Amino acid sequence: MVGFGWSMQGMREAMVLVFVAIWSSSKATSTWWRGDSDEAWDNCLSWRLGVEANNIRAWRTVPPECSAHVEAYMVRGQYQRDVALIVDTICAYIDSIDLSSDGLDAWILDVDDTCISNLFYYSGKRYGCEPFDPVGFKTWALSAKCSAIPDVLRLFVKLIAKGFKVFLVTGRDEDTLGQATIRNLHAQGFFAYHRLILRSGAYKGQSAIVYKSTVRKQLAEEGFRIWGNVGDQWSDLQGEYTGNRTFKLPNPMYNIP
Ligand SMILES: [Mg+2]
């Protein structure tokens, strides 16, 4: 019996060793406990992290195999949770600021996919897998159907209540989209901002970084102190006079250099 007991124990140990060997081997080479689709999904998660961290740059479209991943991210709640966490973080920062009485404490918000969402438009573009269509986007923007991003509206209301001068700075063309943008912002609850700044003819052809840096420089020269700067594109947050703190909102659907 003792010999049989030792034998059973030995068999168990051998089975464990075999299992560990298979597990280690599989982990090193592939993912035998997951399907290929799971691995592809995780690759898209890595791509999205690379985009949001600005490690992947100058990308033009979402990889075709990541359309479903980006769709799931945008519509199943994770995007909304991420935005809510960022806004909570911004609100804590706002609470730490003592405003001056000179009325020059300023905050900058981008417009598209910061204040208002173009998610519905991009749902018709396979969530960014199709190249940017300037004519189609302009038609969409003129229709003024963009909805508010609720947590950013919450942030906007807090900024106004605290006494910040809020500047909405957008690369949208002033001549063709100015009125539609104002209507859209008002329809979605964005009132009482200090100034909406659109791209005028003087800035046509400039990159977003150069255009927005120039706008911020002009605000600084007017005496405004830019405490915060929020946008969904890295080009909203780079360049000069970026502000005391910048906050990047997620957007895996398109990239504006
Ligand atoms: Mg934007």
The CATH class is identified as Alpha Beta
| SSE order | HHHHEEHHEHEHEHEHE
Radius of gyration: 25 Å
In terms of DSSP E residues, the strand content is 5-15%
List the ions, cofactors and other small molecules found in this model: magnesium ion
Mean pLDDT: 89
- Based on the coordinates given, report the CATH architecture: 3-Layer(aba) Sandwich
State the end-to-end CA separation.
76 Å
Low-confidence stretches: 1-6, 16-35
Tell me the name of the CATH homologous superfamily: HAD superfamily/HAD-like
Q: What's the β-strand tally? A: 7
**Number of separate domains:** 1
Query: Structural class, please?
Result: alpha/beta
Q: Largest sheet at a glance?
A: 5 strands, parallel
Name the overall outline: globular
Biggest sheet: strand arrangement: 5-4-1-6-7
Helical proportion, percent range: 40-55%
The helix tally amounts to: 10
CATH topology: Rossmann fold
Organism: Salvia splendens
Pfam family, one: Acid_phosphat_B
Signal peptide: 1-28
Protein name: Acid phosphatase 1
Record keyword descriptors for this entry.
7 strands; disordered N terminus; five-stranded parallel sheet; 10 helices; binds magnesium ion; 257 residues; Rossmann fold; alpha/beta; single chain
Question: What can you see in these coordinates?
Answer:
By secondary structure, the protein is α/β, with parallel strands linked by helices. It is about 50% helix and about 15% strand. It has helices at about 1-30, 35-50, 65-75, 80-95, 120-125, 135-140, 150-160, 175-185, 210-220, 235; strands spanning about 105-110, 115, 145-150, 165-175, 195-200, 225-230, 245-250. The strands form two sheets. Strands 5-4-1-6-7 form a five-stranded parallel β-sheet, sandwiched between helices. Strands 2-3 form a two-stranded antiparallel sheet. The structure holds magnesium ion. The site of magnesium ion (MG) has 7 residues, from loops.
